[in-house]
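A common beginner's mistake is to predict each chain separately and then try to dock the pieces by hand. The better habit, illustrated here, is to supply every component at once so that their relative placement is modeled jointly.
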Amino acid sequence: MRKALGGDQAAYAELLRETARLLRPFLSRRIGFEGDADDVLQEILVSIHKARHTYDGNRPYKPWMYAIAKFRLQDYLRMHYADQLRHAEDIDDLENILGADVTEPAISYESISGEVLKLPERQATILRLIHQEGYTSKEVAATLGMTESAVKVAAHRACKVLRQKLER
Amino acid sequence: MKDFEQLVAQLAGEASMVKPAPHPYLLSLKLIGAGAVYLAVSLAVSGLRPDWTQAISQPWFVAEIVILFAVFVAASLSAALLSFPDLHQKRGLVFAPLWMFGLFLIVMWFAWRADSPPAALPLHTIECTSCIVLVAFLPTAWTFYIMRNYASTHFHWAGSVAILSAFSVGALWLRLQEANDSIAHVVEWHYLPTLAFAVLGLWIGRRLLKW
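With all components supplied together, the output reads:
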């Protein structure tokens, strides 16, 4: 640092790299996001640069450097938590959602069965065999004389149609 | 990583020879010296209290002035140390104003008890506080101007002791200028407002010393 204060650019660059090497684990222990830790590290280096005239060459470098690092870290954490508070949901706003009965299903078993019966006969049979009786696609294919992939495609289309009807 | 190397190169490119900051003791001497000269000039302009020969024969008055000056010195020293990010690694000295203020309270307690029968309350009230604020304005501005040249990482506390230092100059001036021996008045309209402004300094420090 003494050389750097004397204007030695190479020594100063080396000092900044060494400082960054010391600070990376210090910051990553305290900041969850790696991208943020890098941003804070760069801010600390800029602050060290701005305040370098306050360093006394007769004293150890690390306490001075860590004082600036902690100061910038606290700044970051203060802003981070203030941001989180700003974007937090107000519990009063959630009352309407929380009031809804989430344990009561919106669609009844009878309404699904009714819609299944309205599907083309082959699709309804495939759904019944797979979802009610528990057959695999391969077994259904063998029973109905279809290929396995055709059964899967038919089941997928039937589910899609059902979803559209029930969501309406 | 590329950004980091760019930043290092940029900062190293700007690394010209810098003039190091003075030692905090020298800086505090500068603050104390300027405050003392300002106090002397203010007293020379306004004049000492008419009964000053009688006042300096009262031990609790002398003790009050001496301790108030000690508060000013301790606050100036603390302000100088707080201008450095690591407090120049003299953390204990930063709290000197608190000890001095504690001592000042003890002296005021004894002065209050010694004020028997109590001296007559002066007719004026808030005028004293206004005078202290007016006299302390320049030292406050100058102290903050000096402190802004450095890099305080404890700006709340730094702002508070800077105000305490400047307002103790104002309080000293008024105590040496005004012929008034009512301790109740002095506490209520001189020292409590000084303390209140020192608390306000926590906020002013954040506004003026953040970097």
